Amino acid sequence: MGSIMTQETNDSIEYSDESFWQKVKLFAKKAGREVIDNALCLYYAAKRPDTPKWAKTVIFGALAYFISPIDAIPDLTPIMGFSDDLGALAAALAMVSMYVDDNVKNQAAEKTAAWFD
């Protein structure tokens, strides 16, 4: 998969599809179903052609935080490791919820089920 969007500055986190899928693959079980489902809802909402640029900016910011190796709470920390990721993803979802339609939810649910069922 190619990159949907990449931010490249000295202070920002870079987002790429490859990094996103690698993080999901490596940490799905550890992150938990809710974190992965939220991340996938955002990912599929960003792929919608009618999602405006401002919403994609919010989405990619949250997804960049999710894939970043530098976290407020390191992902390898037992129990609490993904709580900050969940908060960032949930906040982004609340902001762009109008672009998370049934199709996006179904795509995310199918992919989440593939990782957890």
UniProtKB/TrEMBL annotation:
It comes from the Bacteria. Keywords: Membrane, Transmembrane, Transmembrane helix. The keyword DNA-binding does not apply. It is found in: Endomembrane system. It holds the Pfam family DUF1232. The keyword Transmembrane helix applies. It is a multi-pass membrane protein. GO terms for cellular component: endomembrane system. Residues 55-90 form the DUF1232 domain. This is DUF1232 domain-containing protein.
